[in-house]
Amino acid sequence: MSLKAVMYHYVRPDREDLPNFRHLHVEDFRKQLDFFESTSGFTDRDAFLQAFSGGQMPDGMILTFDDGFADHHDYVLPELKARGLWAIFYIPTGPLSSGEMLSVHRIHMLLGRHAASEVARKLEDLLEEGMIEEGKREEFQEKTYRWQMNPNDVLYVKRTLNYFISPVWKKKLVDSLMNHFFGDEEKRIVQEFYMTPDKLRILHDAGMLIGSHTQNHPVMSHLDRKEQEEEIAGSFNVLEDLLGPLELRTFCYPYGGFHSFTQETEDLLKKNRCLFSFNVEPRDVTGEDILSRAQALPRYDCNMFPHGQCRMEA
Question: Residues 8, 296: contact at Cβ < 8 Å?
């Protein structure tokens, strides 16, 4: 037996207005939970937490859900409650404060509604000399989206906007793309996209662990120390304003992978009393991880297990 953490994002039924949206169908989510139950079981919550204070390493699966989507209240929580399961939900708090959609999710909506080739062509039209940092292209080309199954045009759009482009240009480009493809419709979409504070409280009151996923979902390694501190401390402040003092502080890195954060990030998490943080690294959690590097625990993507892949053709 072993201890495995698995990461989820969108869990929802198909939608006709988002024909290309890449998500885990809720029916396949149920099948995957059945698979985990029959093969490895689920980790006891208290045993997992006690391991950080020298307790015995538990076995089984830990379920984690990123990005604070309404999906997690509407489709995930009922399934967890029906099975008597717990999970960790990592929330980017910016949308709770601003009411606006994060750039990373605006990109998902663009690629979900429209053909990736159309979005890629429009992005190429908008790009100007100096917008792309060539050093970043080289640094992140082979390190990003290694565990996802994306067509080439999807990879081009995601890598360009999330990693290659200079941060000072990113919002301008995404604004232009959203205005071109969605217009005023974005205002309606954002209202149903994320969990409201009331839905977040329902998860918390149901015994789920609520953690930070920063405020604005940046690549932390792109930020200086002060900016990283604001993303970490600010997000925990928002969560505790909404939920009261958290039982514990836990965090997961936006995008994930060792390229997405630095030793400075890990030090800041310790400073902010974070008990543990999840990275994206497809291997089991070991006792050495918990004792020696609790701010970079490994996590699998759900698509690496049976029933965890999106249904659409690549």
Answer: no
Angle at 115 between CA 25 and CA 178, to 5 degrees: 95
**136 vs 188: CA distance, rounded Å:** 34
The pair of structure tokens assigned to 4 is 């495995």
Helix (H) or strand (E) holding 12: strand 11-12
* Structural domain harbouring 240: 3-100+194-304
| 94 and 199 inside one domain | yes
User: Which residues contact residue 184 at a Cβ distance below 8 angstroms, ignoring those fewer than 6 apart?
Assistant: none
Exposure string (b/e) for 284-293, b if CB count within 10 Å is 16 or more?
A: ebeeebbeee
Rounded distance between C-alpha atoms, residue 268 and residue 272, angstroms: 6
The model's confidence at residue 244, banded by pLDDT at 50, 70 and 90, is: very high
Structurally, the chain folds into a number of domains equal to: 2
Please state whether 289 falls in left (phi above 0), alpha (psi between -120 and 50) or beta.
alpha
Q: pTM of the full predicted structure?
A: 0.91
pLDDT in tens, 165-201: 877 888 899 999 999 999 888 888 888 999 999 999 9
Question: Taking a C-beta distance cutoff of 8 angstroms, is the pair 26, 117 a contact?
Answer: no
